Amino acid sequence: MKKACGVVLALAALGAGTGLSVAADPVDADAAQALIKKSDCGKCHAVDKKKDGPAYKETAAKHKGKASAEDDLYKHLTTAPKIKIDGKEEEHKKVNSTNEAEVRNLVRYILSR
Question: Whole-model pTM?
């Protein structure tokens, strides 16, 4: 029994340092909302209303059930991809953080809406 618990703990520790998400990771809503404010995401996005960009609920629905949802949204928020707003192409701003855990918390917050 001790050996089995040790293996589970070792695997959990190994996964913790890789940036891999565990579905049960809790979302720190206050930290996510602080990063949203710091990054000025509210200028174009809201939880349940479309602005220049989609609502977080729309984004969550679009990615629901996709295994790559967290990684796809993480990439979108950290690489400044080209997007279209009112038919004009422009660069989506990067989230204002280089801390992977902080950004992944924001991603899980958006996907949980």
Answer: 0.77
